[in-house]
Amino acid sequence: MLATARLQLQHLPAHLTRDSWPGQLTILEEALSHLDALDAQWRQTRAQLPEGAGPGSDAYVDALDEHHADAGLRTTASHARQCLDIQAAARRAPSRPKHAQLPALTSRRSGHGARGR
Asked: Is the whole model's pTM more than 0.90, yes or no?
């Protein structure tokens, strides 16, 4: 979704965009990268829990609470709306032709195609 929003933003007319969108997308990309790192850290933490410390145990719940506190979900939630706003702006943007416009063809009888008949 972030990659789509970034691409759409590059092609939107300026009057349909907000100056804050590129920065907010960057913040979301950084938050996503942070979440990926935290996920890897959570897997490592779970692997190091004592035997029998599964879901519901005090050790597991404490580790999970700490993980959630570090996740930065507030940042993600506060900026994620921008992806939806960019999508809405892309839908409002005038559609562009799918193929490049070719110049109009001239008649063979006029211009360089005529042979003085």
From this structure: no
Q: How remote is the C-alpha of 58 from its chain's centroid? A: 37
Residue 5 and residue 87 in contact, taking contact as beta carbons nearer than 8 Å: yes
How far apart CA 109 and CA 117 sit, in angstroms, is 10
| Cβ-count burial 71-103 (b if 16+ within 10 Å, e if not) | beeeebeebbebbeebeebbeeeeeeeeeeeee
Task: Return the pLDDT at 97.
Answer: 46
Report which listed range, 21-30, 65-74, 100-109, is most confident. 21-30
Query: Cα separation of 28 and 78, whole Å?
Result: 9
